[in-house]
């Protein structure tokens, strides 16, 4: 039996987020906080699951129930870069700015994301409620429908993210992204649609901050099933070529906080039993900016 995360307790998250209870600061009422649109579990796995070319090994095919044909032709491909200052001022303030191109598309995706850590990594209702209240105090609340709130749960850290998704046509006949050559173009495109919340919080535009683009990273994503003690969990296997190597992670989407906690526990147990779980978070933005793995 395959478990599709998020179908068991859909009403629980909404009830928890609207409740007025312990952990909510008095400066923001429950009616002001944003609704969490979804939860994502992100776990890093060992890069021995790919070879020196980034292709999946036989161990990966066995672990994720993939055929050789699926491994060779079943991946979605995208290329991305991030924009920040030399001192990573945006990242330090909780912001990440990404320009992405999905293979086969004729436009760029622009993502402006504000992130804050949850107080603990248990995905407790108190920690999520407190993060939503803190976000409301920072003007990320239910009155703004330009941002979608999502909780990301990894190995040792969980975060509350607010993402503003936009798009723009590719300025050239080709949407290909290349290191260095596209740095100025990326900054200009992201600056052109810079959200007011970012400019107000940082007090600058990208051009004025002398921002520049990171390395270009290439990600391939396969839909997979991870066998667990209770059945199978539908997830994505993501392999990102970056910093001279490969960053490999498993992600799963849910609509409910308790489901997310259960899915993370089950995935951690299954991946650890097979010896492939990396005991580190699967957040790679800072690594991309630093050129690290």
Automatic annotation (TrEMBL):
Signal sequence extent: 1-30
Annotated protein name in UniProt: CYTH domain-containing protein
InterPro entries noted in UniProt: CYTH_domain, TAT_signal
UniProt domain CYTH: residue ranges: 69-276
Organism the protein comes from: Candidatus Corynebacterium avicola
Record keywords: Signal
Cross-referenced Pfam families: CYTH
């Amino acid at each position: 039996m395959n478990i599709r995360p998020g179908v068991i307790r859909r009403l629980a998250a909404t009830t928890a987020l609207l409740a007025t209870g312990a952990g909510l600061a008095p400066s923001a009422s429950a009616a002001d906080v944003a609704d969490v649109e979804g939860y994502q579990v992100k776990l890093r796995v060992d890069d021995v699951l790919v070879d020196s070319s980034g292709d999946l090994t036989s161990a990966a095919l066995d672990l994720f129930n993939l055929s050789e044909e699926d491994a060779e032709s079943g991946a979605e491909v995208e290329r991305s870069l991030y924009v920040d200052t030399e001192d990573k001022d945006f990242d330090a303030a909780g912001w990440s700015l990404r320009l992405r191109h999905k293979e086969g598309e004729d436009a760029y995706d622009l993502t402006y994301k504000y992130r804050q850590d949850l107080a603990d990594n248990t995905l407790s209702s108190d920690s999520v409620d407190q993060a939503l209240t803190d976000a409301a105090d920072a003007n990320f609340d239910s009155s703004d429908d330009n941002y979608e709130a999502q909780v990301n749960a990894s190995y040792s850290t969980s975060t509350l993210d607010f993402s503003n998704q936009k798009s723009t046509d590719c300025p050239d006949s080709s949407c290909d992204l290349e290191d260095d050559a596209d740095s100025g173009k990326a900054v200009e495109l992201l600056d052109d649609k810079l959200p007011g919340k970012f400019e107000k919080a940082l007090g600058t535009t990208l051009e004025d901050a002398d921002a520049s683009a990171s390395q270009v990273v290439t990600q391939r994503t396969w839909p997979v099933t991870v066998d667990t003690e209770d059945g199978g969990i539908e997830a994505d296997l993501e392999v990102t070529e970056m910093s001279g190597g490969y960053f490999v992670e498993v992600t799963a989407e849910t609509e409910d906080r308790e489901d997310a906690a259960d899915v993370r526990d089950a995935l951690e147990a299954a991946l650890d039993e097979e010896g492939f779980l990396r005991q580190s978070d699967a957040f790679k933005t800072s690594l991309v900016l630093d050129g690290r793995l």
